[in-house]
Design a protein that fits this description.
Blueprint: H1 2-11, H2 35-49, H3 53-63, H4 71-77, H5 91-94, H6 97-102, H7 106-118, H8 124-141, H9 146-157, H10 165-168, H11 178-190, H12 195-204, H13 209-224, H14 229-238, H15 241-254, H16 257-263
Helix pairs in contact: 1-13, 1-14, 2-3, 2-15, 7-8, 8-9, 8-11, 8-13, 11-12, 11-13, 12-13, 14-16
Length: about 260
């Protein structure tokens, strides 16, 4: 999940000033963690503590009211009501990666991914987006080839993954829907040669950069066996202590390759 947080931080400065190149400084002075990171950590917290996804998301989300939430989510977060609002946006997919790291079989991952989504994003597309990212993480970390990941996700979710980043980039525009950003984020991973390359390719599409890099980064971390040490150090320096403590505890318990690079 450090890969997801790293992608969020790296992409944060390009969310409102999209770029169409992979040639950019990886970390800049104004890079910061956003709602993508906060809610990813919240899902990890729920898994670690055995609490509900809803309570963990509300607890941690309220602790960071200025993280950059969308309007509908912000109203839900601070409402006394906890009814979902039928969202099809990519907020469900951006926060789900801990599920792919924590659970060991596809059906469990799909079920848990749906549970993380429906607290807010109970629209079928919102659920599907979360499941696609979580399944991609699971397959990536369990030794599946990229061709197998492509085929499994494409056949199960009817996403068009037979495109390349170079084909998508020229006409692609900002899109917060799962349908319009999850397949493209998975393709950024599928086209990549390394963790960093996956994040750069996701940002270079010129869309919802922090969220797309968050999704691509999570899958790339799982596939490439961790996150480079210098990037992990930047993540540690960017996160608050409470967010880092949950992150490091989760990684140590479920998938410690990325955290080990910082400790060695």
């Amino acid at each position: 999940m450090i890969g997801a947080i790293a992608g969020d931080i790296i992409g944060s400065v390009y969310e409102r000033r999209q770029i169409k190149t992979t040639d950019f400084p990886l970390f800049q002075n104004h890079c910061r963690f956003t709602d993508d990171s906060v809610l990813t950590v919240a899902i990890a917290k729920a898994i670690l503590e055995g609490t509900s996804y809803l309570s963990a998301v509300k607890e941690l989300g309220r602790r960071y009211p200025n993280a950059g939430y969308g309007g509908s989510f912000f109203r839900w977060l601070f409402s006394e009501s906890s009814e979902p609002y039928n969202s099809w946006a990519n907020g469900s997919a951006m926060r789900v990666s801990p599920v792919g790291f924590a659970f060991g079989d596809a059906e469990r991952v799909l079920d848990e991914a749906a549970k993380t989504a429906v607290i807010t994003h109970n629209h079928p597309e919102g659920i599907k987006g979360a499941q696609a990212v979580a399944l991609s993480v699971l397959l990536a970390r369990t030794g599946h080839r990229k061709s197998q990941i492509r085929e499994s996700v494409q056949s199960r979710f009817d996403y068009d993954l037979d495109r390349t980043v170079d084909q998508i980039r020229p006409a692609y525009r900002f899109d917060v829907s799962c349908k319009g950003s999850v397949p493209e984020s998975i393709i950024a991973f599928l086209d990549s040669t390394s963790f960093e390359d996956a994040v750069r390719k996701a940002v270079s599409l010129g869309g919802d950069s922090d969220t797309m890099a968050c999704m691509a980064g999570a899958i790339a971390e799982a596939y490439y066996g961790g996150v480079p040490k210098d990037i992990v150090e930047k993540v540690r320096a960017s996160l608050t202590d409470d967010l880092w403590d949950i992150t490091s505890e989760f990684c140590a318990k479920y998938y410690d390759l990325s955290i080990r690079t910082l400790e060695d």
